[in-house]
Design brief:
This protein is α+β, with helices and mostly antiparallel strands. The protein is built from six helices and eleven strands. Helix 2 runs antiparallel to helix 3. It starts with 43 loop residues before the first helix and ends with a helix.
Length: 223
């Protein structure tokens, strides 16, 4: 199965989605994490040789970076390794070997890497009953105004990639960034009480980040 938007590869622990439609927000500033280049990507045959080991590494990595907010929403906070994995799996699934096409995909997926002073995540709307998928997804319209990180008394609103929800349609996969000021970063470093929350009329839920998740995200902000 191709890794199209909203589809899963390798089960829920390793959900792979197509990258953002455009390298969004990249023009704001330079990367804090080094952008991915063609030199970082293996050809399909070479990737097969190391896939099992690399896949297990990403599974272990995502245990700290995948955060469920209630029973219908989860966020996977992306870093350089998770994005490389997505590129490799997409190439493998779609048998992409043309170097120009690979470069195009790398350029798109680089938009998922967090820039200076921000966290980046892929948000999944997880609807189990596929018979009423559209109806259930439409209940989440407006979620792009309703996702926050609370750090003590501070509250950081997620910025969603534009174009993934309309009046009569919403994607099950969303791309979000959490922009941090210097004061936000200092508070995140000093405050163990960090909460990821959704304040939507249809869906209200929150979860306190565990220490391992918080440390992984703090590394993204300080890399």
């Amino acid at each position: 199965m191709c890794a199209r938007r909203g589809e899963y590869l390798n089960g829920p622990s390793l959900s792979i989605a197509r990258g953002p439609a455009v390298p969004w927000l990249r023009c704001r500033c330079s990367f804090s994490m080094k952008p991915i280049s063609l030199d970082d990507i293996r050809g399909i045959a070479a990737y097969e040789k190391i896939r099992a080991e690399f896949r297990q590494k990403i599974i272990d990595l995502k245990k700290k970076r995948r955060i469920a907010v209630g029973d219908k929403v989860s966020l996977v906070f992306e870093n350089r390794e998770t994005v490389i994995f997505q590129i490799q799996e997409m190439m493998r699934a779609e048998r992409i070997t043309d170097l120009d096409k690979i470069r195009e995909e790398i350029d798109v997926y680089n938009g998922m890497i967090p820039g200076p002073g921000e966290l980046s995540a892929t948000l999944f709307l997880e609807i189990e009953d596929q018979s009423c998928l559209r109806e259930e997804l439409l209940k989440f319209l407006g979620i792009d105004e309703a996702v926050f990180l609370k750090i003590g008394a501070r509250k950081i609103q997620a910025r969603f990639e534009e174009g993934r929800s309309k009046e009569d349609k919403i994607s099950a996969v969303q791309y979000v960034k959490f922009p941090f000021s210097a004061e936000d970063r200092a508070a995140f470093s000093a405050t163990p009480d960090v909460v990821l929350c959704i304040e939507h009329p249809y869906y209200k839920a929150e979860v306190r980040l565990g220490s391992e998740s918080r440390e992984a995200l703090l590394a993204d902000l300080t890399e």
